[in-house]
Design brief:
The protein contains 14 helices and nine strands. The chain is α/β, with parallel strands linked by helices. The strands form two sheets. Strands 5-4-3-6-7-9-8 form a seven-stranded mixed β-sheet, with helices on both faces. A two-stranded antiparallel ribbon has the order 1-2. Helix 10 links the parallel strand 4 and strand 5.
Length: about 350
Amino acid sequence: MDADELSAISLRVWRYKQGEVVSFLIYLGDELGIYRAMAGAGPLTAAQLAARTGLHERWLLEWLRCQGAAGLLATPDGVVFELSEEAAEVLANEEGSTWFAGGAFCGGVSTPELAPRLVDAFRTGRGLSYEDLGPVAAHAVERLTAPWTKLELVPRIIPLLDGVVERLERGAVVADVGCGAGVAMAALAAAYPASCFEGWDPSGHALERVRERFADARLDNVELHCAGAAELPSAPTYDLVLTLDCLHDLPHPAEAFAAIGRSLKPDGAWLIKEIRAAKSWEENLRNPMLALMYGTSVTACLSSALSEPGGAGLGTLGLYPELAEHMCKEAGFTVFRVHDVGDPAHLYYEVRR
């Protein structure tokens, strides 16, 4: 064996283990509000941070040193630590920054009770649906997607769709298919009170999050359906349909495309948000987060896409633009417009008859 190559591969593997551990400590920092306590506070010792948070000083010191070693906190001496303005955007500013990533860390990619079922999926070919993945997954998806949705959907994305803002202001009927925790519906329902919104999702865990959100928001222009896209009305009903980052998760996406085609009014619009992906491996290698994308697919997206017999199994990177356009045309749509807004992870498609 090549001794240098052996050493390099060993170090690479252990760095991934280090990433796993640091990820868990990021989760602790988010869950305990440590990053928020440090944002804008300047340099702090563990004792000063303990006074601000009410947390135990010795535990904080070890956490701070891990964060310093990982390059997430600035420290000259391992005693005084500071969360920079830029780091605060990513780790603390959940309500005001599309850079916020703290919600992506929920203590691991799979809970202990689900890990054996994923092992079994490799043997049987049958994956886990989002309902199977449980309330932890529903909460994780919500935290991951909420910042973009709250800050970008209404002011930036919806105005890209010809005539849709005016229609929503007058009063439209909107379906959010794969609505998850309802973050998009909450933003739209608040912005356009004259319109009515229907959330469709087969996950009861996700819909429970929607009910909690709308009870707090006191919005009454929303109706929920615990069902998938195939159950959409067969008659033209909706002025606007949303499928935000979910089509690649579906076991039978062609059925969803066809059902959306039937339920959309002839002059309606369909907004698709999908992962920025390419058809070839070589093109996808340009993505610096490619391993993360495939890993997420195994633990969530592909698992969902193979959770029913005969599942298409698209997975996280499976619905690239050319395939999405082809499937739209197969479902009877003639307009497929790509909106690239600089989102590093997603593209947006405007689809019409």
